[in-house]
Amino acid sequence: MMLEEKFLSDLPDDIQHNRLILPEVALKVRKVVDDPNATAAQIAKVIAIDVALSARLIQVANSPMLRGLNVVNNLQSAIARLGNVLVRNLVTSLVMEQQMHLARNPRLKARLMVLWQHSTQVAATSRALHHTQARRGHAGRIDSRHRHAAHTHARGKVSGTDGRRCGA
């Protein structure tokens, strides 16, 4: 099993056993999205609790990379355009980014910013490597798991479990 696959398979267990703490909305979204019978309307109902998150998903759905013929102007249409897996991963990443900006302690906020920038660089590098391998015929489908895995790979560093003091 590849490291990324192991990480992604362990993530739900880490969340369930409080080894990774995410805001309530992200946890509810994960639960609904993991239901194979979940509809865009059901997912939208959970996400609509967080207005800023809802607006950001609509913005992503209308981005040049994902834009369709019609502009998306509501959350349910955004979810339908993005798909359940991308929505789940985006919500997790966006909520983590949001928490970074809410930090009040300047040292903690600076540490979170460094980790976020590092994670974004890891995601970009991972995606580039995956594209290179795909062009050579050595990789499968490319999806949003790169960003999600990169933004959660260093989760112990914020809490100081990596052996360093987090500065809080």
What does this entry show, briefly?
This protein has 168 residues and is an all-alpha fold.
Topology, element by element:
Elements: H1 3-16, H2 24-33, H3 40-47, H4 51-61, H5 75-82, H6 84-102, H7 106-135, H8 145-152, H9 155-159
Helix pairs in contact: 2-3, 2-6, 3-5, 4-5, 6-7, 6-8, 7-8
Task: Please explain how this structure is put together.
- With 168 residues, the chain is mainly α.
- 67% of the residues lie in helices and 0% in strands.
- The protein has nine helices and no strands.
- The protein has helices spanning 3-16, 24-33, 40-47, 51-61, 75-82, 84-102, 106-135, 145-152, 155-159.
- Helix 2 (24-33) runs antiparallel to helix 3 (40-47) and helix 6 packs antiparallel against helix 7.
- The longest helix is centred in the last third of the chain and has 30 residues, at 106-135.
- The model is unreliable at 159-168 (pLDDT under 50).
Overall shape: globular
The separation of the N and C termini measures 36 Å
- In terms of DSSP E residues, the strand content is under 5%
Taking pLDDT < 50 over at least 5 consecutive residues as the criterion, the unreliable ranges are 159-168
What's the helix count? 9
Q: Characterize the largest beta sheet: strand count, sense, and whether it forms a barrel.
A: none
Structural class category:
mainly alpha
Summarize model confidence as the mean pLDDT. Answer: 75
Topology as a string of helices (H) and strands (E): HHHHHHHHH
Total E-strand runs: 0
The percent of residues in helical segments reads: 55-70%
| Rg of Cα set | 17 Å
